[in-house]
Amino acid sequence: MANPRALALDVLIKVEEQKAYSHLVLNQVLNKHRQLDLRDRHLLTELVYGTIQHQRLLDFYLEPFLKQGMAKLDVWVKQLLRLSAYQLFFLTRIPSYAVVNEAVKLAKKRGHRGIQGLINGVLRNLLREPKRSLDTICDPVERIAVETSHPTWLVARWAEQYGLKTAQEICRANNERPVLTVRVNPLKASKQEVMDHLRALGYHVSETAVAQQGLRVENPAKLMESSLFKQGYFTIQSESSMLVAPLLRPEPGMKVLDLCAAPGGKTTHLAELMDNRGHVVANDVHAHKLKLIKKAAKRLGITIINVTAYDGTTVSSGQLGHFERILVDAPCSGFGVIKHKPDLKWHKRPEDIKHIAELQLQLLTRAAQLLIPGGQLVYSTCTIDREENESVITRFLEDHPDFEVGEIRQIFPQDFGSDGFFMAKLSKA
Ligand SMILES: C[S@@+](CC[C@H](N)C(=O)[O-])C[C@H]1O[C@@H](n2cnc3c(N)ncnc32)[C@H](O)[C@@H]1O
User: Fold this and answer.
1) Residues 138, 171, 332, 382: which is the catalytic one?
2) Whole-number Å distance between alpha carbons of 233 and 218
3) CATH T-level topology, domain 181-236
4) Which of 28, 166, 267, 349 could form a disulfide with 282 if both were Cys (CB 3.0 to 4.6 A apart)?
5) Which residues bind S-adenosyl-L-methionine (predicted)?
């Protein structure tokens, strides 16, 4: 029988060595080990996310017991120490002797006696000695960065953009467990009907705080295996994402373009808001992702979506036609969704932001040309970085005097427990 700690260690090693996305690696492992019971699946998930989320704080506690520091250790040893320290400090329901024994067993499988001794010694010291105090860190940015486990440059960036207090709130919210939300498909049923159905199946469901069609599901295990999901009564989507398509106000019969559409969460929402009447072009540069959009549309009973695979920065209007509404849900750093993808904070670099902001501006510029006069466009990202959000809009408007900016909304991950998101509405004269 697969052991959740051993599997968690495999995932952590892969995420660090290959800079892989934690949610993708974890899902692969969960799919491969279908025989794991629900408790072990929860534990595995908790161990992976928790260890990555609190990595820097765990290192801060571990460092004093390592003569050569964490940086010198092999990746697997480092990750095993973090995984064990996470359990000792954050999962106190697991007895500490069990944590140490399991760690030593895993070390035995992977390494020689010396490493076993090191793991055993460090963890026992960690239990015996008083916890290292955070009060030794004088710089306020550094203190938030260590306490909430974020890179210092990122906290400094948010503190500069929004102030220290907001930066701290963002960091704390990033370590919270996200609640799963679903968007009800009005083509199939009302929100009340879906809520009643889900409750009858034993799910704890309530309405979302802000999004009209949204429901929160507190115990979502096996939700995607339910007949309700398979028959297209809802789509799994974060509450913040559910606010984007309504901002574009698509109407039945319109010609709408979703320039960066895959996997189609917002395309299908647009089609639902149009009552499945009109025409939606769902474009994405990655052709292999288009099948996800087609599959979602089919499940939801949507028939007005056509897919195309062009680079949105170069696509010509002849290829796509002219549109009354365009959504540019741009690729971004993803700093608004760190709750779901904690590895992002360790893998992204400041230069990535510069690079992606250029791409975003190019996509927006191209979209502007595909819009008919009097048409409307929404630019959105799942990030909270000003360089990818307000700055892109400002730069765009400097070159496009025929555009006017309407509603702009920056959502933070602490606002209503969902993701950080940015959306701006632009109208063409
Ligand atoms: C934020 S995701 C879109 C999410 C989608 N709107 C949804 O709600 O499900 C950004 C998408 O942009 C696509 N993309 C990246 N560069 C692109 C480009 N140059 N042209 C078109 N699409 C691009 C990516 O493949 C990715 O699927």
Assistant:
1) 382
2) 18
3) Alpha-Beta Plaits (3.30.70)
4) 267
5) 260-266, 284, 311, 329
Measured in Å, residue 223 CA sits from the centre of ligand 1 at 26
Other Cβ atoms less than 10 A from the Cβ of 165: the count is 10
| Residue closest to 282 by CA, chosen among 252, 298, 302, 259 | 259
Residue range 241-428 in CATH 3.40.50.150: yes
Here the ipTM equals 0.99
Q: For the chain, how far is it from start to end, CA to CA, in angstroms? A: 64
- What are the DSSP calls for 203-230, one per residue? --EEE-SS-TTEEEESS-TTGGGSHHHH
Which atom of ligand 1 lies nearest, measured to the CA of 263?
9
> Is 382 among the residues known to form the active site?
yes
- Cα–Cα distance, 16 to 76 (Å, whole number): 9
Measured in angstroms, how far is the CA atom of residue 298 from the centroid of ligand 1? 20
The fourth-level CATH superfamily of domain 4-132 is NusB-like (1.10.940.10)
- Give ligand 1 pocket residues (Cβ under 6 A): 241, 259-266, 284-286, 289, 311-313, 329, 331
Spacing, Cα 19 to ligand 1 middle (Å)? 20
- For the record, the structure tokens of 276 come out as 């499945």
User: Among 247, 260, 333, which is best to mutate for testing ligand 1, by the most ligand atoms less than 8 A from CB?
Assistant: 260
Amino acid in position 60: F
Bridge-based pairing state of the strands 214-217 and 205-207: antiparallel
Model-wide pTM > 0.90: yes
Residue 186's φ and ψ, nearest 5 degrees, are -70, -10
Cα distance between residue 368 and residue 49, in whole Å: 39
